[in-house]
Amino acid sequence: MQIGPVGSLELFDQLPCPSMVTDMAGQILVGNAALLEILGSTHEALNKKQMSTLFGPADRQRLRTSIWPKLMRGGSVNEMSMQLKLPQNEPVTVLVNAKRCAFQGAPCYQWVLFVARARSKFEAELVAANEDTRRIAVQLADQFELLQVTMKSIGDAVVTTDADSLVTWLNPVAERLTGWPLADAVGQPISEVCKIVEAATRVPTPSPATKSIRRDGPVGLPADTLLISRSGTESGIEDTAAPIRNAKGDILGSVLVFHDVTAQRRMSGELTFRATHDSLTGLVNRGEFELRLQRILANTHLSTTEHALLYIDLDQFKLVNDACGHTVGDQLLRQVSELLGSVVRVRDTLARLGGDEFGLILEHCNMGRAQSVGQQICELMDDFRFTHEGRRFRIGASIGLVPVDARWATTEALLQAADASCYSAKDAGRNRVHAWFDTDQEMLTRRGELQWTTRIEQALDEDSFVLYGQRIQALDADPHGAHAEVLLRMRAADGSMVSPAAFMPAAERFSMASRIDRWVLSNTLQWLSRLPTLELVDNLSINLSGQSIGDRAFQRWALEA
Predict the structure, then answer these.
(1) 399, 431, 435, 433: which is closest to 315 by C-alpha?
(2) What is the dihedral of CA 515, 517, 520, 524, to 10 degrees?
(3) DSSP secondary-structure letter at 52?
């Protein structure tokens, strides 16, 4: 430190620590205000005074033997503890620092005295501040470590970006799903690390992280999206992204959180498949078939598109079931399903409706084309032979073809027409296609028969049948008891009687004749049991259906009755 000009003396005088300048012999040349204050002295009293007189005898001896020799050799001394004498007070411990310098062009020494108690207070405050800083740093380190452990432990993938959508961090789950190690991912665009596409179209989806920054709010992914990893592996994901802000609300970046839903989607898909498909053949089941048919029918009321429905019933399937068992019958159904599947387009719907019945919806297909498809199925079935244990079976297909257009109000009416057309194909000789049209007499007859089945069921449930007796009179003799033929009538809603000729054809077609015969025989026997004596009746004739006569179960029941 060069002390010379008045300005430098003013700066020297403002030093907070007691300071002085001595000549090479130790005579005080000038002292600053802090020194004068602590000594209670003046510039005039200190001027030309030996600096050694400011200290006690022991320190004066130390000055002569140690401090001055060291100062002259090295040009400075540091942190020498000495006792500064104070008038009318106890000595004060000071730390003496001295250095060779120049004063008014002459060599001299500058002395700076740090009062020990003031320095100790300052150092204590500094130590306390350092301790607080260290404690806060430890807390922050612990919090950061806890945050790191937490982010690494959660099951979701977490990726953070800066305001430019460049990756700043990702946790181990995100590393695994994306295939990007943290070191490689940092600084990369989020769209490169997290490649997201729509599952169906494979069209890339804009990064939710980038969108959240632009929209300044949370953003989610559309349904059915896939994450394409660095190695090309695909994972179904669901995610959300939100901007990251500082205390002032400024956007610093974004955080993207997503989790792998591949297994859940696979399980959901399997459950949906099981709910909508036949477990035996893998084809669409009846419920799903009717839903699709309903959607297509609804569209026909809004547009002029053409569609067609084929109702397929296998011929001779019961023969295979009875001869070889249901397990073999299931094998036949699977083979037929594959055969039918070979003629349908991807957009078409082939379903197993139940038993040996199948349904086929041909979308955007006119009746001419649909007729050709149906005929192709008949030809394939005609050439098909089912073989089991050396036995060969020929299986045909009777097909009802109905246009799917706005004329149908409901899917029930449409399916009923298709079913009736199928039976018309069976009646016409089997293994053929019967196309529905409004004036089809066979169809009208079929529709009427279907209505009769409902009335027969109701009559059986409500006991609406009535028995009559037609007397049989001998021409050449008078029999002891009555001879009669039992006749059946159905009571209509208006009270009139309906002849069996009206409802028995439908009963026989739909295998309801045996149930009617049971009712007739049961009620005839009950009537006989109520007579006072059976001698009143000599002979009763009851007409039975051929279905009942050929039914062994009916025969056993009749004999027991």
Answers:
(1) 431
(2) -120
(3) G
* Per-residue pLDDT at 267: 86
User: CA 431, CA 382: separation in Å to the nearest integer?
Assistant: 7
pLDDT at 552: 87
Q: Which amino acid is at 228?
A: I
The length of the chain, given as a count of residues? 561
Whole-number Å distance between alpha carbons of 229 and 222: 18
Question: What is the distance between the alpha carbons of residues 364 and 379, in angstroms, rounded to a whole number?
Answer: 23
Alpha-carbon distance values, 496 to 192, 492, 557 (Å): 83, 5, 32
Joined together, the tokens standing for residue 154 give: 């959660």
Interatomic CA distance for residues 482 and 118, integer angstroms: 145
Confidence class for position 4, pLDDT limits 50, 70, 90:
very low
- Residue 115 bridge partners (DSSP): 94
- Helix axis angle, 262-276 to 286-300, nearest 10°: 80
Q: State how far the Cα of 513 lies from the Cα of 450, in Å rounded to an integer.
A: 14
Angle (deg, nearest 10), helices 326-341 and 317-324: 150
Q: Identify the sign of the CA torsion 526, 527, 530, 531.
A: negative
Q: How many CB atoms within 10 Å of residue 349?
A: 19
What is the end-to-end Cα distance of the chain in Å, rounded? 138
* pLDDT for the residue numbered 225: 86
Percent helix, strand, coil in the chain (nearest 5)?
45, 30, 25
Give the Cα separation of 441 and 324 in Å (integer).
38
Find the mean pLDDT for residues 106-125. 74
Query: Residue 394 has which token pair?
Result: 């020929």
Q: Is the pTM of this model over 0.85?
A: no
CA atoms within 13 A on the CB side of 440: 20
Burial 465-501 (b: 16+ CB within 10 A, else e): beeebeeeeeeeeeeeeebbebbbebeeeeeeebeee
Share of the chain above pLDDT 90, in %: 29
Residue 255 pLDDT greater than 80, yes or no: yes
In angstroms, rounded to a whole number, what is the distance separating the alpha carbons of residues 71 and 54?
Answer: 18
In this prediction, residue 120 carries a pLDDT of: 53
Mean pLDDT on 305-311:
93
pLDDT per residue as tens digits for the range 322-379: 888 888 989 999 999 999 999 888 889 999 998 899 999 999 999 999 999 999 999 9
Q: Is the pLDDT of residue 119 over 70?
A: no
Q: What is the dihedral of CA 139, 145, 146, 149, to 10 degrees?
A: 180
pLDDT above 60: residue 151: no
For the segment 423-449, the average pLDDT, to the nearest whole number, is 71
